[in-house]
Each structure stands twice: as C-alpha cells, then as structure tokens.
Amino acid sequence: MSTVWITGGGSGIGKALALSFCSDGWDVVISGRDQHRLQKVCKLSPQIRWIVCDIKNEDEVLSAQSKIGPIDLAVLNAGDYRPGLTNACSQKEHRQIFEVNYFGTLNCIQAVLPKMKRNGGKIAVVGSLAGYIGLPNASAYGPSKAALISLCESLRAELQDSLVTVQLINPGFVKSALTDKNNFTMPNLLSAEQAAIEIRHGLEGDKFEISIPKIFVWRMKFLQMIPYQFYFYLARKMLKQI
C-alpha cells in the first residue's frame, strides 16, 4: 500500500485530497496544527491517520516524518493567507506568511528528500496562481507563493535525473477558510472537491505544473505577458473592486 503525507490536511484542499486518496486504497497521513480538525477528518475513514505538526518547527517536521515511515508521495499543502494592502500588513505578518508558506514547506522537503532520493517518491508542492504576478491586496501571500514556484523549478532541475519527481500545484481560488477572508468576488471559484479531482488527475502523471482551473490560468498567464503599463491599468481596476 502506498503512503501519502498531506500537510494542512484538516480542511480545504488537504481534506478533500485525503478523502480522495483513501477511497483509492492509499495509506493516508494528514498533519496540521489543529488536532480537533485532524481527528474529525480521520473519523471519515479508517485509512486516514493524523499527526499534529507545525511545519514552521523543523524538529516537529522531522519527528512527524519519522513516525509516518516510508512516504511515497508528499503533498505539501499547508499554508497561511492574509489579504491586505502592503502598508496595512506589518512586517511580523509578512514574516508569518513566509514562515509557513515558504520556510515551512522547505522544512518538509528537506525532511523527506534524503529517503526519497534513495527509494524514490514524489513531492507535490501547493503554490498558487497568485505567485504568477504581483497582485494588489496580496503583497504578503503572493511573494511567498512566487518563492515556492521558484523553489520547485530549482528542485525539478536538480532532481530530474534522480528517483524523485517534483510537481508544482498552482490552484486559483478554492473555497476554504482562507479564501473566506476575501471581501471581493473570486472569479472561477472551485470547491475543494472539484480542485481535488483535478489535482489527483495531474498527480497521476509527471507533468511539472498542475494549474487549475484552466480558464483562470490563462487569464493569469495573460497578465504575465502584457506590458507593465497595461497590467497596472488593469490593477487599478482590480483595486476598485476590493
């Protein structure tokens, strides 16, 4: 039986993926900081185990990896989000976002990588389409996801001749407690279950980037390609909707 470790498995995409994997016979281990949430998910299937783990803490990550045992797939999904204009977010809040989204994910990668390089395995990192370009109202979250995208590109290049496959998952807006913080209409909003179906399909292959939903992906790629003067014109309109 293959084992998947899903960080941030107590809700949202993590929970939906856990239920999807267990329905296919995987040994599923979910982790997070909220024991109550994790236990509620585990009650839905006997094939799901839980471990309390704050990915910001390197020792907790190493301990969790040891308790789980051999890992075939690590879905590094845990993340934090705080919307707000740059001058409305303190440096402490910016650091908190990076500590979870970037450095916490890096802790997990460094914990699983040595054994995977010997035995094989897959690391799937959940980034975000918000990492494609600097968006208004996301100057803490967006850069943390842009850093993850760059990290995954480096890892894929470094490990392409090894037994380890690296994949990057870039979703758009997915209904969750984090996106509930937004006070604007989110285009092409997906449910966690819809996102999990698309992500599972992508994980069955080895294509580097799994980006969803396609219609929103192309909108974001368009923003990447246009000249800055046109992008900032559109960004002004975005701000008026927030």
Detailed description of the structure:
This protein has one domain: 3-Layer(aba) Sandwich (Rossmann fold). It has helices at residues 12-23, 35-42, 58-68, 91-119, 141-159, 192-203, 214-225, 228-240, and strands spanning 3-7, 27-32, 48-52, 73-76, 121-126, 164-171, 209-212. It is globular and about 50 Å long. The chain has 242 residues and is of the alpha/beta class. A seven-stranded parallel beta sheet has the order 3-2-1-4-5-6-7, with helices on both faces. 48% of the residues lie in helices and 16% in strands.
Number of strands: 7
Q: If strands are numbered along the chain, what order do they take across the biggest sheet? A: 3-2-1-4-5-6-7
Helix content: 40-55%
Task: Tell me the radius of gyration.
Answer: 18 Å
Remind me, CATH topology? Rossmann fold
**Mind telling me the CATH superfamily name?**
NAD(P)-binding Rossmann-like Domain
Number of helices: 8
Topology:
Blueprint: E1 3-7, H1 12-23, E2 27-32, H2 35-42, E3 48-52, H3 58-68, E4 73-76, H4 91-119, E5 121-126, H5 141-159, E6 164-171, H6 192-203, E7 209-212, H7 214-225, H8 228-240
Parallel strand pairs: 1-2, 1-4, 2-3, 4-5, 5-6, 6-7
